[in-house]
Design goal:
Elements lengths: L13 H11 L2 H8 L6 H8 L4 E3 L14 E3 L2 E3 L3 E3 L12 H12 L3 E3 L7 H8 L4 E5 L5 H13 L4 E5 L9 H6 L13 H8 L10 H12 L5 E2 L4 E2 L7 H5 L6 H12 L4 E7 L2 H9 L4 E4 L13 H12 L5 E4 L5 H9 L4 E4 L1 H10 L1 H22 L12 E4 L5 E3 L1
Parallel strand pairs: 4-13, 5-6, 6-7, 7-10, 10-11, 11-12, 12-13
Antiparallel strand pairs: 1-14, 2-3, 8-9, 14-15
Helix pairs in contact: 1-15, 4-5, 4-16, 12-13, 14-16, 15-16
Length: 410
């Protein structure tokens, strides 16, 4: 992304990118990607919350050389932003996660891969080459499924696992329910295709069973059912691994699961927790020696009415006190939002939906455009605010506007 590239005159902002994607995506995909939980108020507030802050620019500073790079996973990255893990990217474009990985490599931006991707983690690692990549992980009730994917991620060179911790139950997404969303053919949840094949295989069937009975037996084997409690004990999910049946895990807890995950991942991969929203849980994350925190509310798709991530960020930063990195995602739609997040104490930000919009718009080229827009806006904001290094950005550059319009320093 070095050097000045020509503008796409049809798409000069992330908002315009979203409009292009809305036209190109089919209704099923558009609703799945863009919906929040329930009324969508938290989804909306994630982006609106950044509007509560104004930047205090400093002047007469030499800004002729601006360095936007930052350290992460033992190397410097071009920007303090990464591509957040988002599921099933082939819905947006046939090249899916592979196009995103190639765009990230070109941009020098770290990529997060969803466990529920439509490309295998090995193929994404190959497309990423030496560019760092991380794996978002749902820790399944049946640990062997998780153990397999962790082992593969280590072999493929992933730098970290981001354990999603904000989904003990799935949030209510009404359009998803109304549309009866299912991943359309020919796409598959690539990382679990082998498990799904073994779950649906016709093994040990008596040759005397009729074809009709065999078909019915296959249907039963291929059905995925969520876990439940039968009144006496917990019954884990069954059948092929799907998001709706296996992703939610109400049994997760700090004391048992973080320790297990660290033993499985370390030392090859770091263990981060994604979905922290309070200072109390940030302290627990520290006590359990995780390598980093992502302040997240799942893009507003889980608990509607939860704090916007930028509102939750300051108390978490205060609790962590610089002992481990604190990242944030949700609602970032402009380079000035990145600046504000860093000024509020984040070390790094992650971008989700805008990447999907870019992917839908022009595949790899559209993702590169999305990253370029954010890079250019952020670099311009740094310069106009009077900063030339990421380390210079602090709360001194922000004020907060209350509902009455009064300004207060942070």
């Amino acid at each position: 992304m070095a050097g000045q590239q020509p503008h796409d005159l049809n798409c000069l902002t992330i908002a315009e990118l979203g409009k292009h994607a809305e036209i190109r995506m089919d209704k099923l995909t558009r609703d799945y990607y863009n919906e929040g939980a329930d009324s969508g108020s938290t989804l909306l507030e994630n982006s609106q919350a950044y509007n509560k802050y104004r930047i205090r620019p400093r002047v007469l500073r030499d800004i002729s050389t601006i360095d936007t790079s930052c350290p992460l996973f033992g190397r410097r990255h071009a920007l303090p932003l990464g591509v957040a893990p988002t599921a099933m990217q082939c819905l947006a474009h046939p090249d899916g996660e592979i196009a995103t990985a190639r765009a990230c490599k070109e941009a020098g931006v770290v990529m997060g891969l969803s466990s529920f991707a439509t490309s295998t983690l090995e193929d994404v690692a190959e497309a990423s080459a030496s560019n760092p990549h991380v794996l978002q992980l749902y820790l399944f009730e049946e640990r062997e499924h998780s153990r397999k994917i962790i082992k593969r991620a280590k072999a493929a060179g992933y730098k970290a696992v981001f354990l999603t911790v904000d989904n003990p139950m799935l949030g209510r997404r009404n359009l998803e329910i109304r549309n009866q969303f299912k991943l359309p053919k020919p796409y598959k949840i690539a990382n679990f295709a082998e498990d799904s094949s073994s779950a649906t295989s016709n093994t040990g069937m008596d040759a005397s069973i009729s074809d009709t009975d065999k078909t019915e037996e296959k249907k039963k084997k291929s059905a995925s059912t969520p876990g439940y409690h039968d009144g006496k004990r917990r019954k884990p999910p069954t059948g092929p691994i799907t998001f709706h049946s296996h992703a939610a895990n109400p049994t997760l807890c700090w004391d048992r699961d973080i320790d297990w995950l660290q033993k499985e991942c370390c030392p090859e991969m770091e263990v981060w927790v994604k979905g922290i929203a309070t200072a109390e849980d940030a302290v627990l994350a520290l006590q359990h020696n995780v390598d980093g925190i992502i302040v997240s509310n799942h893009g507003g798709r889980q608990l509607n009415g939860a704090l916007a991530t930028s509102d939750a960020l300051p108390e978490i930063v205060g609790a962590v006190q610089g002992k481990i990195p604190v990242h944030v995602d949700g609602g970032i739609r402009h380079g000035t939002d990145i600046f504000k997040a860093l000024a509020l104490g984040a070390d790094f930000v992650w971008i989700g939906r805008p990447i999907l919009w870019g992917l839908s718009y022009k595949g790899q080229e559209g993702v590169e455009l999305c990253l370029r827009l954010l890079r250019d806006e952020f670099t311009l904001c740094m310069g106009l605010a009077g900063t030339v290094k990421i380390s210079e950005i602090s709360k001194d550059y922000l004020v907060k506007i209350d509902q009455a319009g009064f300004v207060s320093r942070l």
